[in-house]
From TrEMBL:
Location (main, coarse): membrane
MF GO annotations: carboxypeptidase activity; penicillin binding
Subcellular location: Membrane
Any one biological process term the GO annotation gives: cell wall organization
Segments forming domain PASTA: 587-648
Species: Maridesulfovibrio ferrireducens
Entry-linked PANTHER family: PEPTIDOGLYCAN D,D-TRANSPEPTIDASE, PEPTIDOGLYCAN D,D-TRANSPEPTIDASE FTSI
Keywords: Carboxypeptidase, Cell cycle, Cell division, Hydrolase, Membrane, Protease
Protein name: Cell division protein FtsI (Penicillin-binding protein 3)
One GO cellular component term: plasma membrane
Residues of the signal peptide: none
InterPro entries, per the entry: Beta-lactam/transpept, Beta-lactam/transpept-like, PASTA_dom, PBP_dimer, PBP_dimer_sf, PCN-bd_Tpept
């Protein structure tokens, strides 16, 4: 027994020793293997590992978005699949051609030609629809690949189309703000290492291995989508009514110089720019140089007052409506005799203006026009921003000076006019117009006094007479508030002289005392009637009234309907909700508050104002989502009762 125990103990020791030796050999082998992998094969294995997670790819980031002042999205980008092939990887040419031809509707001969090329990368079709992309994925064709690109989308279609411009298929801005801000909006190219995490998400790293964002940067405009829609819709109706060629309207906030609306008509939808005529791409407010006609007369009066040439009561002989100057006849539409200077502006006498200009002198008048912003670019970030056409004063003769005094022989843009009238509204201080809130411009010109506040007030007083008295701007009156304005009816120059077509214009400022908003409207070649006071003044009135209602500044005593007719809603490019029009109109005349939830803001404000209440607007958006008092309640008896509308 003792001997057997001794043998068993010896056997156990041998087994334990064997296990220990085995583990020692195993650990030695593992350590040796690790050392070999780390010291000798480490670099090669690291490269193999990186190939699973890192790749050198070329990709462009998403283009930045464009927003209006209230955060409404005017331009954005959406993902789309694009198809390309690598001919060297195509295994079955016949099957590939047949499948792609059936899915894409491309001829077999064209696809065969593409597949026969020696290039390693060939685009077949860019920006496919989802159905076609899914069919190609299911086909699993070797050598055929889908990649993600971004398609530019303009959610409101025509709204501010010429201003926004458009970007091409490669994501490059080609017109408008898309072109001017292309460097900011364009997504960066990922020409560096792309790392994938465990879930396959790509991380873009710079040369230092830090993660970077390749998406383009956004821009925020001063434009208000609601007022932009108002201006465009009003222009559409006016162009149609007077069978005109085109029109433009600009709305400016006086305190900031910010452009709230910049409308052009005919309208342009950048979503379908390839099917549109380049003529409709034109931002005419910045590009088209026109003779302004009588809308220049307030600046003549301001210059003459500044230099002491006239006083508002100085009498001027208007020659009975016809005056011979060096063999050229200057005419008025009415046979005026002696008029004080303020009535020269009120009745828009060309003869009276010419005589004031001749007394003022070419040098003084020319310098004044340059100082208020004519003859140079506005400084706005718009492609094609024009300097206009004002010849040096030394080249003017008496006829040139007389004609320039009532706006002929001088070329300006609508934006230059808006900037110049901003100087009048700001009591003689020239300020820059602003179109972009973010990024802020670092090159804005500093405000500069051009003429005294006293001169500015005298000019405004005369412009109030144009509208409020028996002047040429009577159709721009707004019940319950004052309006200052000036009409223009300029003969258009053609071959061999002036023809029978006209540029009708009107500039309005509201309120007439201490203006808060400026509206400039031009209508080219109206045929039914060509006078600015008839064609353009009502457009200005509608836009100004809408602006006052929208910002809660419309006077309580408002006799006329302050907003656009219901039929205009059909042409609006803003988001639409179902409007219960007939029942709503009945409710307005009843004793209970109608249900305005789901309505566009304009329609809801129209209903409240017609009943004598100016609603308080809360939130941001274009559609009513809540109201106080609720629908069905009786209308408040107090006219100053609070009506609140919440916006989506």
């Amino acid at each position: 027994m003792a001997k057997r125990k001794k043998e068993n103990l010896k056997s156990s020791k041998n087994k334990m020793l064997f296990v220990m030796v085995l583990f020692a050999l195993l650990w030695t082998g593992l350590l040796g293997r690790a050392a070999w992998l780390q010291l000798y094969k480490g670099a090669d294995l690291s490269r193999l590992a990186l190939r699973q997670h890192l790749a050198a790819e070329l990709e462009r980031g998403e283009r930045g978005s464009i927003f209006d002042r209230n955060g409404n999205l005017l331009a954005t980008s959406v993902e789309a699949s694009s198809l390309y092939i690598r001919p060297v990887n195509v295994k079955d040419v016949g099957r590939t051609v047949t499948k792609l031809s059936k899915i894409l509707g491309i001829s077999r001969s064209k696809l065969k030609k593409s597949l026969s090329k020696k290039s390693n990368f060939i685009w077949i079709k860019r920006q496919l629809d989802d159905r076609a992309a899914n069919k190609i994925k299911k086909a699993k064709l070797p050598g055929v690949y889908l990649t993600t690109e971004f398609v530019r989308l303009y959610p409101y279609n025509h709204l501010a189309g010429q201003l926004l411009g458009f970007a091409g298929i490669d994501g490059k801005g080609l017109e408008g703000l898309e072109k001017e801000f292309n460097d900011r909006l364009a997504g960066r190219k990922a020409q560096f290492v792309v790392q994938r995490d465990a879930s396959g998400r790509r991380l873009y790293l710079d040369e230092m291995g830090r993660e970077v964002d390749i998406r383009g940067k956004d821009i925020h405009l001063t434009i208000d989508s609601h007022l932009q829609s108002v201006a465009e819709n009003t222009l559409v109706e006016t162009i149609k009514k007077y069978d005109a060629k085109w029109g433009t309207a600009i709305v400016v906030e006086v305190a900031t110089g910010e452009i709230l609306a910049l409308a052009n008509c005919p309208r342009f939808n950048p979503n379908i720019f390839r099917t549109s005529s380049p003529k409709t791409w034109r931002n005419r407010a910045a590009i088209d140089v026109v003779e302004p006609g009588s809308t220049m007369k307030p600046f003549l009066i301001a210059a003459a007052l500044k230099h002491g040439v006239i006083t508002p009561e100085k009498l001027i002989d208007c020659e009975g409506g016809r005056w011979n100057l060096n063999g050229k006849y200057i005419k008025d539409t009415h046979k005026y005799g002696w008029l004080p200077a303020h009535k020269v502006l009120r009745y828009s006498s060309n003869i009276g203006s010419a005589k004031i200009g001749l007394e003022l002198g070419a040098q003084n008048y020319h310098k004044f026009l340059i100082d208020v912003g004519f003859g140079r670019k506005t400084g706005l970030p718009l492609p094609g921003d024009r300097v206009g056409s004002i010849r040096p004063a030394a080249d003017w003769n008496e006829i040139d000076l007389a004609a320039g005094s009532f706006g002929q022989g001088i070329g300006v843009t609508a934006l230059q006019m808006a900037k110049a009238f901003l100087c009048v509204a700001n009591k003689g201080i020239a300020k820059p117009l602003r179109l972009v809130q973010l990024p802020r411009s670092e090159e804005d010109e500093a405000p500069k006094r051009i003429f005294s506040a006293d001169v500015a007030e005298k000019v405004l007083s005369m412009m109030r007479e144009v509208v409020q008295e028996d002047g040429t701007g009577r159709r721009a009156r707004i019940s319950g508030t004052t309006v200052a304005g000036k009409s223009g009816t300029a003969q258009k120059a053609g071959k061999g002289g002036y023809g029978d077509q006209y540029m009708a214009s009107f500039v309005g400022m509201v309120p007439g005392y201490n203006p808060e908003y400026i509206v400039v409207v031009l209508v080219d070649s109206p045929t039914v009637n060509h006078y600015g006071g008839t064609v353009a003044a009502p457009v200005v009135k509608t836009i100004m009234t809408e602006a006052l209602a929208y910002y809660g500044k419309l006077p309580e005593k408002q006799n006329s309907l302050p907003v656009m007719a219901a039929k205009m809603e059909t042409s609006s490019e803003m988001p639409k909700k179902a409007v219960r029009l007939n029942s709503t109109l009945k409710a307005v005349s009843g004793e209970t508050v109608p249900d305005v939830k789901g309505m566009p803001i304009r329609r809801a404000v129209e209903i409240m104002v017609k009943k004598g209440f100016i609603p308080k607007l809360k939130g941001q958006g274009m559609t009513i989502i809540k109201q106080v008092p609720p629908a069905g309640d009786k209308w408040p008896e107090e006219k100053n009762a609070e009506i609140v509308l919440w916006l989506s």
